[in-house]
């Protein structure tokens, strides 16, 4: 179809789908009985939170799972559970969002940022050069881009670096058939409204390590009720840790768990819908002059809940012109090159509590990244229209330049 300058998109980039009816029914049932606290159960009852943990563990093939208050809380808990202490350094991605360095700061540790590649994943060469600076890598699969996990794990295993995976954007994704979050010692997921399942807020943590699981359960605020965790390690695992692991309250409640369980059962179907939309946008953007689409490796099974492209080598005024021209036509794009943090978007040098040297290689990539949400409330026609608008505006500005 020929690009039509009059076309305007009128949908919302922040509107997710409604909660499915069976999830609403499950939530109402919890409200009817009133036992919203996960440890408030009657004889013979398994709490919704415990069932959610059991089902998620089975879904990703993990030994243990813990449901918590948020994705950021899951990450901070994972860092504590693998032994990160105040003053420690933690390797992490230069391209990520604020809750990631925030979780490192919550533990009193300091991030060591690792460069991002033009494929929008952690730069393994830069990582290899920094592995002697920390004992733990908090690997963020930012915007759903998964690095070569086989190569990363080989590097980290050889260096004795423990990997905690931030899977806020990769729930349901995999690398070479292994679910995201299952190569590192711990995988952390978010159930916040803009993620792949929606409980408003919430997080999940998975691991195969019984001690890490036991510490995480204690940290989340289990008091001495850890035997109610059907996806937790056996009670004897807690014997050695229950006296010296603090309760840093951050439990998930049964209401959120009830909303999430039916959504987990639909996750694969939802991923199919996201990826169909992603494909339409990507097809519409491909071969636009001045614009680079991100090529996705065959080993990566991703979830296209957002899309990124690069305007490499563009000057700031030209990028700002694209953003405002697209916004005028109803298309909300985010840019990782802005000097000031805006909305959900910020950069490693915006987090001034976390000292970092300038990373010129990352700056070059970040200054070219354009990011767009793809909510499932968009139809395939919406996605085609959005791509036509972006293509027309990028082309127009590029030709002026
Ligand atoms: C990359 C990334 N990691 C972690 C989180 C934390 O998730 P939550 O909002 O559930 O704390 C987010 C949330 O936006 C995120 O984008």
From TrEMBL:
Pfam families, per database record: DegT_DnrJ_EryC1 (PF01041)
Keywords, comma-separated and alphabetical: Pyridoxal phosphate
Name by which UniProt lists this protein: dTDP-4-amino-4,6-dideoxygalactose transaminase
Domain of life: Bacteria
InterPro entries: DegT/StrS_aminotransferase, PyrdxlP-dep_Trfase, PyrdxlP-dep_Trfase_major, PyrdxlP-dep_Trfase_small
Gene3D superfamilies referenced in this protein's UniProt entry, alphabetically: Aspartate Aminotransferase, domain 1, Type I PLP-dependent aspartate aminotransferase-like (Major domain)
Family named by the database record: Belongs to the DegT/DnrJ/EryC1 family.
């Amino acid at each position: 179809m020929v690009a039509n300058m009059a076309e305007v998109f009128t949908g919302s980039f922040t509107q997710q789908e409604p909660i499915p009816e069976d999830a609403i029914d499950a939530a109402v049932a919890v409200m009817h009985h009133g036992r919203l606290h996960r440890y408030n159960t009657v004889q013979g009852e398994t709490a919704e939170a415990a069932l959610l943990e059991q089902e998620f563990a089975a879904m990703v093939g993990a030994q243990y799972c813990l449901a918590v208050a948020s994705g950021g809380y899951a990450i901070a808990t994972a860092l504590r559970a693998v032994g990160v202490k105040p003053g420690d350094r933690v390797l992490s991605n230069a391209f990520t969002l604020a809750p990631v360095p925030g979780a490192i700061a919550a533990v009193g540790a300091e991030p060591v940022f690792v460069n991002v590649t033009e494929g929008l994943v952690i730069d393994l060469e830069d990582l290899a050069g920094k592995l002697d600076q920390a004992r733990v890598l908090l690997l963020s699969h930012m915007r759903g881009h998964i690095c070569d996990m086989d190569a990363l794990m080989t590097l980290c295993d050889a260096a004795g670096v423990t990997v905690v995976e931030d899977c806020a954007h990769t729930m349901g994704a995999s690398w070479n058939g292994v679910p995201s979050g299952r190569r590192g010692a711990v995988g952390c997921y978010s159930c916040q409204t803009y993620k792949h399942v929606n409980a408003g807020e919430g997080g999940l943590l998975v691991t195969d390590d019984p001690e890490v699981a036991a510490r995480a359960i204690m940290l989340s605020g289990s008091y001495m009720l850890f035997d109610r965790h059907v996806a937790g390690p056996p009670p004897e695992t807690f014997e050695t840790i229950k006296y010296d692991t603090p309760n840093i309250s951050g439990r998930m409640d049964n209401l959120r768990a009830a909303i999430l369980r039916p959504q987990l059962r639909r996750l694969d179907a939802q991923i199919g819908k996201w990826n169909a939309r992603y494909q339409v946008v990507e097809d519409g953007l491909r071969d636009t002059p001045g614009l680079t689409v991100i090529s996705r490796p065959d080993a990566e099974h991703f979830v296209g809940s957002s899309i990124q492209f690069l305007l490499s080598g563009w000057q700031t005024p030209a990028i700002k012109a694209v953003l405002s021209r697209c916004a005028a036509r109803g298309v909300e794009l985010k840019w990782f090159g802005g000097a000031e943090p805006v909305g959900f978007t910020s950069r490693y040098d915006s987090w001034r509590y976390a000292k970092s040297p300038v990373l010129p290689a990352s700056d070059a990539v970040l200054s070219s990244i354009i990011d767009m949400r793809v909510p499932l409330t968009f139809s395939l026609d919406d996605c085609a229209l959005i791509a036509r608008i972006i293509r027309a505006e990028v082309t127009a500005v590029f030709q002026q330049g």
